[in-house]
Amino acid sequence: MATIAALLAVMVAIFVGEWVSTWTKALIPSLFITSVIFIIGYWTIFPKDLVEKASFGVNFASICVPLLLVHLGTSMNLKQLARQWKAVAISLLGVCGTLLLTLTIGSFIFDLHTVLAAVPAMVGGIVSALLMSDSLNQIGLTSLATLPVYMIMFHGIFGYPITSIMLKKEARRLQTKFQSGNISQTESLEANEEEDSKKFIEKLPNDYKTGAFILARVILVALIAFAASQLIHNFINFNILCLLFGVVFCELGFLEKNALHKAGVFNWLIYGLIAYIFMQLGTSTPKGFVSYIPEIIILLVLGVIGMYLISLLLSKYLKLSKEMGFAVALTSLLGFPADYILTNDVIKDVTKDPKEVNYLTKNMLPPMLVGGFTTVSIASIIIASIFIKFI
Fold first, then answer.
1. Contacts of 165 by beta carbon, 8 Å cutoff, 6+ apart
2. In the predicted model, is pLDDT for residue 217 greater than 90?
């Protein structure tokens, strides 16, 4: 019964977040509410192993990430993916803006060790936070070792509302553009392209297109991506290869569009991954968090200002809206699956029309995903590896 009760607690936290997001028309993101529920829960009545008891531990998460990334690849095409160099540029230079302000102004307010400990976690994910935390413990700076962990726990809470606002403005802009008919012929064709491939998949009778068969092919593509990453010694990140191979194998007709939706397992995987991410909040304490509030807030404010200034300048040069540019830069505070969930929540709130949803998704989701992978999976780990040498 403990397992069932833990699963119920996790699902209540998630659906309350979804309801609040729907009620506020995505003004308050679902992940923000869910994260607050987890924090308060861990500080009061939730057991520290709640997520593991609900069967959403590290093993489940290691399955979720590659399968979900392959799935998201099936929602794109190669042309869309090739156009994401702008997202790469904005996300990388946005991180540079963060580094500039935090290492200069931040170092005047706090000591350099504090800034070096916090920044990689601010612009990255769990891996960069753990790298910094372990290194700080090894050199005896145990008082700072928890700062990267607190930063990784709370930077998303800071980033969720801002990103949601930017995405909502961009979605409204694109919706107006679509409704006015002011889109290019290429965009029009992409917005109305057929959902399914006409190659391998269409040759099979519908009775054989079972959920298990779809899921088996998605798993196979993830395994191929893993083998490829090992072959090239992780020169290209495994997560990026999962996304890329999802696109390629869908284009070849081996995978359906939106494969995991058709297999009926998408929501279960995404909920499990959300639970795993918020499991990290279980190590926090009110006292520990309060002691680092000044560092967390001031460095986050400086970091976001740096992202905004760089994205504003670069968006004009790259001919992107300033809202989309800023949202892409903010992906360093989100990571996967938060970048996907926030984008999807906003789109669902802005429109229910299938053609508009398709158009908004194709224009907003790819840059958000690619921007997130660029910062969280690559840049932040490189930054952490460099900063460790200066501590």
1. 27
2. yes
Judge whether 265 and 211 are in contact, CB under 8 Å: yes
What would the pLDDT profile of 82-117 be if each residue is shown by its tens digit?
778 888 888 888 888 988 998 899 888 988 888 888
Q: How far apart are CA 174 and CA 254, in angstroms?
A: 31
Note the pLDDT of residue 45: 92
At residue 192, the pLDDT reads: 53
> Which residue type, as a one-letter code, is found at position 290?
V
Query: At residue 213, what is the residue type?
Result: F
| Bond from prior residue into 367 cis (ω within 30 degrees of 0) | no
Identify the residue with better confidence: 311 or 237. 311
pTM over 0.85: no
- Let me know: does 91 contact 328? Beta carbons within 8 Å: yes
CA nearest to 370, candidates 129, 85, 160, 127: 85
215-229 burial string, b = 16+ CB within 10 Å, else e? bebbeebbebbeeeb
pLDDT at 6: 94
Can you tell me the distance from the alpha carbon of 42 to that of 61, in angstroms, rounded to the nearest whole number?
20
Write down all domains in the chain, each with its CATH number in brackets.
Answer: 2-182+203-388 (1.20.1530)
> Who's near 124: CB < 8 A, 6+ residues apart?
152, 332, 335, 375, 376, 379, 380, 381, 383, 384
Q: How far is CA 3 from CA 74, 81, 301, in A?
A: 34, 41, 40
